[in-house]
Amino acid sequence: xxxxxxxxxxxxxxxxxxxxxxxxxxxxxxxxxxxxxxxxxxxxxxxxxxxxxxxxxxxxxxxxxxxxxxxxxxxxxxxxxxxxxxxxxx
Length: 90
What we know:
- This protein is mainly alpha-helical.
- It has one domain (2-86).
- The chain is 43% helix and 8% strand.
- It has a two-stranded antiparallel ribbon with strand order 1-2.
- It is rod-shaped, with a radius of gyration of 31 Å.
């Protein structure tokens, strides 16, 4: 009986040693990376002017949308400036 208890104790110690690295308590995930300050309306307007100039220079018919770091709409061009909006209805 004494040998059985000693064997069980040794087995429990071995199991504890093999499991212990995997039973680390749950940790909170790291915070998301900082994206910097949100874009202001004045900054968005300047970016819009530059994007519109580039689109005109390259003869691109595009809709330009500027969003902040949280994907919230800040400013966009009117849809009437895109090629699809200028097509006549069928």
